[in-house]
Specification:
It contains six helices and nine strands, in the order αβαβαββββαβααββ. The strands form three sheets. Strands 3-4-5-6 form a four-stranded antiparallel sheet, with no helix packed on it. The protein has about 220 residues and is α+β, with helices and mostly antiparallel strands.
Length: about 220
């Protein structure tokens, strides 16, 4: 019975599960939840959790995919200061031994899966929206520090307003403490994101617009500072 099953190298029921998995084709193994199948172990003990994770990795090495559901810390869903990789309960061995770790948060009929660790990929946020008859899956890549700083610069620019490069540098220096070289790099980032247009005038000066206008007629050679 499930009440007698614990993920332990000494548990007879778990040994039977491993023998079964070792004699069948690859499959998806779902552990729901880690706490339910680690009775008698201390979730805060590195030694105990290392034994459990070692057993699960043995299943993985047989060729099976192993999905482990685990509980979050009590206030994880409301504490934005806590990064995704630290929102689970117990020992850090869980993160160290897992190939991937996601924190799942629900917002209405939408579920956000934020990567706390991905050994073989980047660090996307997976957004799953449940719809009638199916689901919509989207991925989002967290913004880099450069992108966040670039958007702070963008917030200082009004749509429809024309700026010279000198004006942007002065505004950014006063409001954000950014230097000229940093502003130049951030402007190029904003242009790459399609959020501003940079155009060289007939007098050889640069004018910058927060995008509402198209930039098809701009020559890339004219956009070097």
């Amino acid at each position: 019975q499930r009440a007698d099953l614990s993920i332990s190298k000494d548990n007879p029921h778990w040994k039977a599960v491993k023998r079964l998995l070792n004699n069948i084709d690859r499959c998806l193994v779902i552990v729901d939840t880690l706490g339910s199948f680690s009775r008698g172990f201390d979730p805060n003990s590195d030694k105990d959790m290392r034994e459990i994770m070692s057993e699960l990795k043995e299943i993985r090495d047989m060729g099976h995919a192993v999905l482990v559901l685990h509980h979050t810390q009590k206030y994880a869903s409301v504490d934005d200061r806590l990064p995704a990789e630290l929102k689970y309960r117990g020992s850090g061995v869980v993160k160290a031994d897992a190939d991937g770790l996601f924190y799942v948060q629900r917002e209405g009929n939408t579920y956000l899966l934020q990567a706390g660790k991905l050994r073989f990929m980047g660090s996307p946020i997976v957004k799953i929206t449940l719809l009638e008859g199916g689901a919509k899956v989207e991925t989002q890549t967290p913004e880099s520090k450069e992108e966040r700083e670039a958007k702070k610069l963008l917030d200082l620019m009004e749509i429809g307003q024309e700026y010279t490069r000198k004006e942007i540098v002065e505004i950014a220096s006063l409001k954000l403490g950014f230097g000229r070289q940093k502003v130049d790099a951030l402007l190029k980032t904003l242009e790459g994101l399609g959020l501003i247009t940079i155009k060289k005038t007939s007098k050889g000066k640069f004018v910058i617009y927060r995008v509402e206008t198209k930039a098809e007629d701009i020559n890339d050679d004219d956009l070097q500072f």
